[in-house]
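A further point concerns the way the authors explain their paired sequence and structure data. Each protein is reduced to its one-letter sequence and a matching series of backbone shape codes. An entry of this sort, consisting of the sequence and the corresponding backbone structure tokens, reads as follows:
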Amino acid sequence: MAAQLPITFSEVLNLTNPSLNVAAENIKFGSCTMESDKFITICESALGQIAIVDLSAGNSITRQKMSAEAAIMNPVSKVIALRAGQMLQIFNLELRAKMKSHQMPAPVVFWRWISPNTMALVTAASVFHWSIEGDSAPVKIFDRNPALTDGTQIISYQVSGDSKWCLLCGISAGATPGVINGTMQLYSIEKSVSQMLQGHCGTFSVVKVPGRDASDPAQILAFEDKKPDQPAKLFVMEVGRDKSAPGGVFRVTPQNIPIAPDAPNDFPVTMNASKTHGMIYMISKMGYLFLFDILSGKPIYRARITTDTVFAATEHTASGGIIGITRKGQLLHVGLNEQGLVPFVVGQLRDQQLAIDLSSRLNLSGADDLYVGQFQQLLAAGDIQGAARVAADSPRGFLRTPATILKFNQCPPVPGQPQPVFQYFSVLFE
């Protein structure tokens, strides 16, 4: 029997099918946008209209007579932003009313919604945030570093969940033919300082750190680090936390990214973190999907899901996976195969600790024998606390049974320590 894969993969929609009637030449970076899993917006400039695909309403399509060079739908509501030259306008489609407009002092080269109420506007020199509320004008947040100006194409801009950190990502032609360099500017809004990173893309996420109180999650930055003549690595680190804070600063050992042998100059173009499963989905220019565990940074899976370029990807909230659009108009969905993940890690990666960690964190089957073995080993070694935690964390609570209580009752007491069974109960109460 073939081994189960750790992911599921499917084509959700093709924008060029006759029922949608979207011209292939309109499906490209800039004129076709997807800010969330609710809407896809396509500028049909030659016809003077905007096509909006409502993914939450059976992929229904509507067209609005609006002349614009670019348009992006709000991630949660039927509010649309239009750009024509340096003029920006925001409309509420349900109320058929213009909400606000602004004439930018310089052309906008990249823009996106960073929240339901705020847009990010990137010009050749600076980054602005524009609230849709009230009459306020765009506010400059920071200036682009010189390394991210001339000859650089901006492909991504991210803001952390606490709105304290910004990540601007750009690409440019390298000195070696076929090599594309990546440069990122990490900016602290609180401290008004930047740090330059070498790599093509990154993403923010909030994670619960093992061993740290659940009320003290980590605001982390995950990014691809690619220095000249060095292998690409995945960095996962906490940002904004003082080194002296209780529990320290969360950071994992950088992990090598397994670039495909037939694509030595390949580089990532999208990176998304799954809030549901604690995974990182990364898609490369040549259509390779990479799946990483966010708490260890370890690569789990790589596969080529398309021969075309994916230019936009976003989290798919219903599945915890992602959806992405290719230049041929395919809307692809990638999700986690919960039944196949742990068996794949055990059988293919042979990483028992990762299998145990994933099984416990996501409450998945597939590592029960590993849990039993680890529990018995710790118990035999007299590590009562360790054995108690393995039993307490066992997926689906399969070790939290009367038989386990009996095992702790049979353990000889250690002078100066509570009875082993009481230690087990204490861990359960925690």
